[in-house]
Amino acid sequence: MTTTAAPQPSTVGLGGPVSASLEADLRSWVRRQGVVVWLDQAGHYRGFVDRLQALCDAGALPYEVYAFRGSHLALMMALDGVAAGTEKVPLVIHLPGFTEESVRSTPLFELYAAGVRYRKALDTLVTEAAAGRVRPDQIASFKAQPDMTLAGADAWLSALLDDAEGGIAGQLQAMKPTAVFDDLLTGGFVAGRISKLDDEDALWERFGVWVGLPGSWRDTTLPPSRPRAEDVAFVAASWALCVEYVDDLKRAPVSKHLARVADLPRPVIETCRAVAAHLRERHPGFYQRTADETEALLADEADAARAEDLGKVDTFRFEEDKVLKAALAALDRAAYDLAADWSDMRVDLKSASTSFWLRDDPTRQSAWQLVRDAARLGQTIARAGERIGVDTRDGGGLEAAVNAYVERGAAVDQAHRQLEQRRMALLYPQLPEFETLRTRLDGMRRAWRVWADAWAREFNALCKAQGFLAGASQQQRMLFDEVVKPLTQEAGTTAYFVVDALRFEMGEELYRQMEGTPATTVLLKPRLAELPTVTEVGMNVLAPVEKNGRLHVSMASDTGKVQGFQTGEFRVSDPETRKRAMHDRVGGGTCPWLTLEEVVSRDSTSLKRSVAQARLVVVHSQEIDNAGEKGVGPAVFDHVMQKLRAAWHLLRDAGVRRFVFTSDHGFLLLEDSVASAQAHGRRIDPQRRHVFSPVAADHAGEVRVALADLGYEGVNGHLMFPETTAVFDTGRRSMSFVHGGNSLQERVIPVLTVVHRTAAGGSSVQYGIKAEASEGVAGMHCIEAKVEVLAQRSLDFGSPKDIELALRVPDAEGVQVELCQTRGKARIAGGVVVATVGERFELFFRLSGAVDARALIEIHHPSAVADVVPCVPDARFAVTATRGPAAPPSTPAAGFGAGHGSWLEQLPESGVRQVFEHLAAHGTVTENEAAAMLGGPRGLRRFALQFEAYAQKVPFGVRIDVVAGVKRYVREGSG
After folding, report:
1. pLDDT > 70: what percent of the chain?
2. % of the chain beyond a pLDDT of 90
3. 516 to each of 503, 511, 522, 752, how far by Cα in Å?
């Protein structure tokens, strides 16, 4: 048996255990404060202080002790030289009969003011000394006696402790409560003594001491049969949970079972809390059963509970449920701070305050994550305010409006985007309170729309009054010559990222991820995109096409769309002509034009060769815009951000030290653009967010600007836009991703410059990933994984403790990965899994695509910060079709593609491969056919035992049917 004895102060020369506790408390005060002035108004402690002085004279104390015994002069003379000087001398000064007021009129006041006041009521001292050593009812009984003294308290507690010194009682007294629970739940020494009546009585006595266990609760919860070790543990643990619940409660409990909890000594309450926390951490299964059975005894408490009354710890399941419902109600009444407070305590799974009931329930984690993101959107809307707040009388114009958006408004759009991303990944019918949660999220969409419309109206009114074209320093057309070209005149290569639809808040997110890079200057500034905010305008003016601040526009006469901009002898209208215009302006041997995908799929050596002779390399990305137009933007946005960071790292490793990130325009995320569509003449006239018109005509709910006022040459007419975030009615399908208008979300673009003063240093550590499939939950797949150090080529003091990971599908086109939740030493942030090196974690995710299938996943490091070897787990995971089921394949090649052979190679070469190949080709295999392929009944039995493991490796589902007594294996899905 292992026992852990709590250290106790020596009672030698002090009088007993209560006096020893008092001395220990004094010693602690002196150690922290130096000079302690003890005001003993009732004079209870004269004899004790006399004994302290004797111990001090004998050199047994680490501090000096002085006492007032009727003469101020005598005490002052005794202290002469002791309390003087700059350093505090460890010192106790006992002043019996004095209070804070009476000491002020004595010569001792100066000394009192210089020290720290100490007081200790005898009643409090007895409780502190005896709690956890004798039962609370024994403490209460002793304190109820008249004329209580310190000597009497010492004698009383000594007698009780002496009675418990022998046998099992003495052994229990030397153990910690948590150690006894461990023993009872693991079949230890104490558990083996339960059968002896005397030992059982000693254990109940000790639980009464530790957690204040009353006999009434024992009678209520103990089964009528002879108790087992786990029964005893349950009774004591359930009471400890009740005490924790009441202590956390902000009102008095309503259950009669809990009426006496408030009277327990504070040390006993703290012991109960420690026991509850220990059981949650070390014995979660036992804790869950105990809490649920205890909750059933507290039905009246659960009925009366209000979230506002509950504390920070969800001791019982009903607490978490009540708070979730209350948080959803708070969102409904726009009490966003309250909803955020509740959700913040429950979303961070590494926090000690996280609800126990969320740890193993990803669905509840998902619900709380959505609540937190919704609350944060509400908070950012409140901070941003209903208006932009530009006062034109004080000279405020477009620049002031842009600054207001950068400082306040962009955070709203970022919170809105992140909520939409989280909604797409997490909002599934399996979530608790699903319907209510979906309704609240819909409400947050409306709240954002109201805010965005108000800012759009104000911004358009400002543009109408002061002009739509910003000053030169904020014009998109001036960006190349003012920002990019000067960087290219320095030695080396500059990378120019032109990212379709990277709006300002996304650039701000990149800025935050890059700003801490050593020896690097990172700057983020806003500019206003040209109108209309569409790719054919914005992408072309990111090349040097302006002349004297004006743009010569080429417009198609049949479609009314911008084709490009004239510069010199050619028109800039596509990637090739943009590259030509840029190269002509900056010079250099070459001007590589690379897609973002090309950059991230190449290594630094290959990139280094590509940029060797270039002053400028252009990286072009259309992923955000393409995904948005296809209706899957929120699922892709974070992946594009990861690729941008990876491309930055790879190009820096290739020797590039200067970077510019910008975009052609931003976008709006609208929940139902058709329902709120705005009519404008014929449906074929407008684009989604703008109209070119040859005549000046004003329409209700619209703003208009002459093309000439935008500094456009070569074309006449006007541009018209909705004054809100509405789209024009074009008769086309609803789109949640739209652009082309004059809102701040579409017009404010980021200009992010990154300049490295030193070359990138290579990593000396190589990491690997170990991963295997685990049991999924609530429609989510699960893998258990760990990042490990594979090789370390030299001493390395700067290796990251956390590594970013992402999932992708290597063998199937068009499959989207949705990261849902993590459990263990990892978290999801910015669309990646941030995993602690060397620590195991679980990742829950979903796969969706055009057809039902089973796909492999690859875990990789998306940002290229470290050297990480990717990992492909053995198992395949089901892909949920989002566009209806696909027809079964007619041949293996049609259904399973080029990877047909590769998945077969993961299976044993015996008849197992033949069985699954037959399934892939024909869809069914009877048991008799399988036995023939597997070499007979014995091979079939081995196959049946390993069937689930084999089935995880194939790109289709397999079920077992029995038809007319014939067992057969049937393929599901098309792969």
Report:
1. 92
2. 49
3. 22, 9, 9, 14
Q: Are strands 551-555 and 712-713 parallel, antiparallel or unpaired?
A: parallel
Residue 645, number of CB atoms within 10 A of its CB: 21
What pLDDT is recorded for position 360? 81
DSSP string across 213-255:
--HHHHHHHS-SSPPPHHHHHHHHHHHHHHHHHHHH-SS---S
Q: How confident is the model at residue 865 (pLDDT cuts 50, 70, 90)?
A: confident
Which segment, 145-154, 213-222, 387-396, is predicted with the most confidence on average?
Answer: 213-222
Q: Rounded CA gap, 642 and 645, in Å?
A: 5
CATH architecture of residue range(s) 765-881: Sandwich (2.60)
pLDDT value at 619 more than 80 = yes
- Position 231 scores a pLDDT of 93
On the question of a cis peptide bond just before residue 265, with omega within 30 degrees of 0, the verdict is no
C-alpha distance from residue 320 to each of 338, 433, 658 (Å): 15, 12, 50
Name the residue ranges covered by the structural domains of the chain.
1-163, 174-304, 345-466, 472-755, 765-881, 892-972
Mention every residue, 6+ apart, whose C-beta is less than 8 A from residue 879.
Answer: 809, 812, 815, 847, 848, 849, 851, 852, 853, 854, 855
Cross-strand bridge partners of residue 327: none
- What value does the mean pLDDT of the chain take? 87
Looking at domain 892-972, its CATH class is: mainly alpha
Per-residue pLDDT at 173: 80
- pLDDT value of position 164: 59
Residue with tokens 């030169």: 472
Q: Which of 816, 960, 803 is nearest to 877 (CA)?
A: 816
Q: Edge to edge, what strands does the sheet with 957-963 contain? A: 924-926, 966-972, 957-963
CATH number assigned to the domain with residue range 472-755, chosen from the 4 options 3.90.1150, 3.40.720, 3.30.450, 1.10.150: 3.40.720
Q: Read off the amino acid at residue 393.
A: R
- Written as six digits, the tokens of 376 are 């944060």
Q: What pLDDT sits at residue 892?
A: 38
| Residue 123 to residues 119, 149, 352, 670, Cα–Cα distance (Å) | 12, 10, 34, 66
215 contacts: CB under 8 Å, gap ≥ 6:
none
What is the C-alpha separation between 163 and 205, in angstroms, rounded? Answer: 12
The encoded tokens of residue 338 equal: 């309250």
Give me the architecture of the 1-163 domain, per CATH.
3-Layer(aba) Sandwich (3.40)
Enumerate residues 6+ apart whose C-beta is below 8 A from 701. 678, 722, 723, 724, 726
Distance of alpha carbon 413 from alpha carbon 427, whole angstroms: 20
Among 163, 167, 165, smallest CA distance to 155 is for 163
448-453's contacts with Cβ under 8 Å and 24+ in sequence apart are: 448/377, 448/381, 448/412, 448/416, 449/670, 449/671, 449/725, 451/381, 451/384, 451/386, 451/412, 452/412, 452/413, 452/668, 452/724, 452/725, 452/743, 452/745, 453/724, 453/725, 453/726
Tens-digit pLDDT profile for residues 148-184: 888 888 888 887 877 656 667 777 887 899 999 999 9
pLDDT digits (tens, 9 = 90+) for 477-496: 999 999 999 999 999 999 99
Side chain identity at residue 410, one-letter code = A
- C-alpha to C-alpha distance for 26 and 129, rounded to whole angstroms: 13
Q: Are strands 116-118 and 35-40 parallel, antiparallel or unpaired?
A: parallel
CA angle at residue 789 from 785 to 792, to 5 degrees? 165
pLDDT of residue 446: 95
Terminal-residue alpha carbon distance, the chain = 58
Q: Residue 689 corresponds to which tokens in the numbers above?
A: 């967010």
Indicate whether 798 pLDDT > 60: no
What is the phi/psi pair of residue 724, to 5°? -115, -160
Q: HEC profile for 662-720? A: EECCCCEECCCCCCCCECCCCCCCCCCCCEEECCCCCCCCEEEEEHHHHCEECCCCEEE
Q: What single-letter amino acid sits at 685?
A: D
Q: What is the pLDDT of residue 884?
A: 41
